[in-house]
Amino acid sequence: MISVSEANDVFVKDSKFRKFDVNEIRKDFPILAREVNGKPLVYFDNAATTQKPNIVIDSMTHYYRYENANIHRGLHFLSEVATEQYENARIKVKEFVNAMSVSEIILTKGTTDGINLLANTMCRADMLNEGDEIIISHMEHHANIVPWQLLCDRKKTVLKVIPINDDGEIIIEEYKKLISPKTKLVSIVHTSNTLGTINPVKEVIDIAHENNIPVIIDAAQAVAHQRVDVQELDCDFLVFSGHKLFGPTGIGVLYGKTEFLNKLPPYQGGGDMIRTVTFEETTYEDIPNKFEAGTPNIVGGIGLGVAIKYLNMFNFSDIQNYENKLLEYATERMLEINLVRLIGTARNKASVISFTVDGIHPYDLGTIIDTDGVALRTGHHCTQPLMKRFNVPATARASFAFYNTIDEIDVFIKALNKVIKMFS
User: Fold this and answer.
1) Residue 73 confidence (pLDDT)
2) Are 396 and 377 contacting, i.e. CB atoms less than 8 angstroms apart?
3) What does the alpha-carbon distance between residue 409 and residue 145 come to, in Å, rounded to a whole number?
4) Model confidence over 287-300: pLDDT tens digits?
5) Across 114-272, where does the E strand assignment appear?
6) What is the DSSP letter of 72?
7) Is 0.85 topped by the overall pTM?
8) Residue 214: how many CB atoms within 10 A of its CB?
9) Three-state DSSP class for 76?
10) Which residues participate in catalysis according to the annotation?
11) In Å, how far from its chain's centre is CA 70?
């Protein structure tokens, strides 16, 4: 088990990586040792939220026990300590995604909050006006659909959708056809939470930039499973959530290139985002403070920073290779079951499997399989347009993280066969 002090000794680039041993990794996550319905927990709902290692839990408890104070402007000891920890987390995020400047990192409530911030400020900065077009894909989460629809209602902008093929891959040639002189923004998911598809985001960005169009990347499902380098991608904005990165809920990240963030007006007004206030006029702080009104989720930011420290102990290629093995094994086992239909068979996939079983509603499947301690997600996964594309009301979804095992997949397959036998 890794302690907070040991995690603090790990630096991103100069340290030796921790040996990848799934049995040792599992000891870092206390919830994995519990039982559900008298059975060992098999947690396959990582696309919804990941579990938290002890060092994240301990760091947040330590803050509340010994360092709790409001940040910024406080001159007393506790405020200075809390401020340093919170701002150090911002530095860790900057290094994690390889942003050029720490001021390009805005701490938000999560992915949804980050996209809503952009949708609400871009229109006020005249980056999106009546008749302008926004391109998204058919596999987007509702968080990357609804904010743009609300904007379309207000500003009379137009939403265009990149179609996908039957494997769940975007059709690049169709994407190119959608671009017009009126296209002012592309906002696309890096990795689908439902299909597991890893989109060719670098190609999407390059095509957009050839037409002077900025790009937002929803990396909520990507950052826990592979390195995401904003400079390498050359994306203009990127959003993700801490709770899908082995960190706490209620904290997230919006990365934006300085040139764009400086153009955007404040999203909310209040304390900490101002420079001067009079009844006649208010002036605002520089980025990132301009977008962070009020007391933030201080302990969430600290926990996110520690979660990143924890991940930095590992070589991400080890994580990816291991999760790919889990995905391949689970896919092979599920294809052996005649009644199972996989939804999403892209060539480039993350460790997510959505599926249906003939004659069994996903809700029934999820409820019954839980009696064997197996936690799946069932429903539309906040991707209702995608469900309609594949002509299904819902799916069951198994999503893996680097603390899952082959043995757990065997338990899942046995439980799945048991459910099928019950209904047959």
Assistant:
1) 84
2) yes
3) 33
4) 999 999 999 999 99
5) 133-137, 158-162, 183-189, 215-218, 237-241, 252-256
6) S
7) yes
8) 21
9) coil
10) 382
11) 27
